[in-house]
Design goal:
FAD/NAD(P)-binding domain; de novo design (two linked rop proteins); binds flavin-adenine dinucleotide; alpha+beta
Amino acid sequence: MSGLLAGFIAANAASPLRANTKSEEINRSKANGNLPKTIAIIGAGVAGLTAAYRAAQAGHRVCVFETANRYGGRSLTLRPDDKDYKNWWFDTYNPAREFEAMYVSSFEEREDSPGRGKQACHFHVPAWKKSGRPEELYLNAGPGRIPSHHTHLLSLCKELNVELEPYVFKSDSNLLSDSSFRGGEPIQWRQVHYSLIGQIASIVYQAYKDGVILQGYENVPLMLKALGNLNEKFKFEGSSAVGFVRAPGGWQDPSQLKTPLKLEELLSSNLVLSEQHGTESMESHEDYIDWQPTLLQPTGGMDRIWQALLLSEIPKTAQASQFKRSTRSLERGKLLLGDIVKLNAKITGIYANRNSCTIRLNNKSYTFDACIVTAAPPLLGKRNRMKTSTKEIAFPSDLLIDNNLDESTKKALSEVKMTPACKVGFQGKSRFWEEENQIYGGISWTTDLSSQLWYPSSGFHSSTGILTGLYNRHESAIYTSQKSLPERIEIALKGCESLHPGFKSKVYKDFAPAIAWGYMPGQIAGWADETSELQCNIYLKITDALTPNIFFAGDSYSQTPGWQEGAIRTAALAVRAISDGLKPNDPRLYGTNDVMECP
Ligand SMILES: Cc1cc2nc3c(=O)[nH]c(=O)nc-3n(C[C@H](O)[C@H](O)[C@H](O)COP(=O)(O)OP(=O)(O)OC[C@H]3O[C@@H](n4cnc5c(N)ncnc54)[C@H](O)[C@@H]3O)c2cc1C
């Protein structure tokens, strides 16, 4: 999720970059042999629901158990707690009102959270004509964007007819506020970036001319001229790319360019240096492949993906015989994926047997041929503590799922480092960021605790919009999580003020959802750190599945933690492994002879 993952270059070279190619081969596995298997899936997040969908398609009998009272896991989209809006939403997207818990307008963190208490989304819904559409208001409290190279997820969206639109990760008008640069004065990204590369290009040209470097590459000067917007003398004297004090006018109204920021000033700030600001320079976030300037998002909210899964028709034979078919599905005459999902179903134990696995639910045992677990790795570990990059954090012991996993696997699951994450949403009284700052989407960054401010990538020029006013990770998220709801909102407001002075008066203050993922039911953090890269031996251990008939799926068990791509890729692999009787380290699962090894 940090976007810094270097990855396994050799392995990735073979991976598909075209939607609907290899991903389909992996996704669509047919049950092998004569007997379909019975499969219990723990967790109704994106991984659990995708695994259920693929398993049902492959001819297996499936049941999904979810401890929370809602679907989607970390893919949580919050919508207005407004009766008329909710009715419009269902009439438009789900007229049969199947699985009503798919519309989420309130949530509650766990009892042990300093931010406990019901948070109902009192977004202000502007009046709309009954014949028309209201402005769609939602906050993606978990995932919000999809990079173009996440081909398995994009294929799934295509298959399920989930409409996509651009997600703007970076617009040149986005703001950067660094407390060590001019007292935190917000500066446009374009000022920082183009001032930087202009001056660097000019310096490199001088070095080239002096014969210090790059002799022999005769086209370098021309390249530098284009790269840095240099003048005829290969000097940088500013350019329109840095921005205008006054934009070009109509008649006798000339433009005035902004003065470039001085290189010396930039080089003593967090704006362009990676070391001082964690591992990321504020100016170069967009250089990470996961954070390309334009990404994608499902139109109307990230939950549209799992909602489409829930509403998908699956073979009637997919109903696991351990449980009765719901009256609703019998009346309907069709089985939908949502019919095989049980909410408020907390699995307290999972045990491998020689040819099967047994789960414990409400003090009863149920046996299936195989189980797929999507809960966070430390929940299957040895103790109620998890590691983060800076410290260990305890979580309530009743979240642990008792099990008879191989001891070394259990130990590795406990060792997986997790990344805490928080988000806070605000509703604008107007779209002041468009009117005052010419910002149409993207993210502004601050060295303040709140870290990020996301602007909506759609609904331009409408009357309001939902902002993500705080999105922090690691230590800042641990700090924010431990605060009460009003304190978390204050932290977010302070950070937003550093970017937009007067922010407080421009948003509705009566309701701002504040989510600390570590305290959400069924969760202990945002996601796992890059385990495959940073804890390679642990990663191999947790994906080896030494214990028969129990498989792990979910982004935290994948090489793309913090991304749904990892969730659905592992889900599809788990189903394929069960169908074909393969172990996770079997190269046949990957269509390659490369075997992952740690350095
Ligand atoms: C703040 C944030 C931002 C993110 N941004 C992005 C993004 O922009 N793009 C992107 O693609 N991804 C993003 N992600 C990651 C994305 O949310 C995950 O990859 C995806 O939702 C993971 O799905 P999952 O099914 O693996 O896990 P989860 O969604 O966590 O599902 C696991 C489920 O297991 C349940 N469970 C746990 N214990 C039990 C039990 N004992 N019994 C029954 N059920 C249990 C949990 O309640 C949960 O519902 C983000 C995540 C967060 C938190």
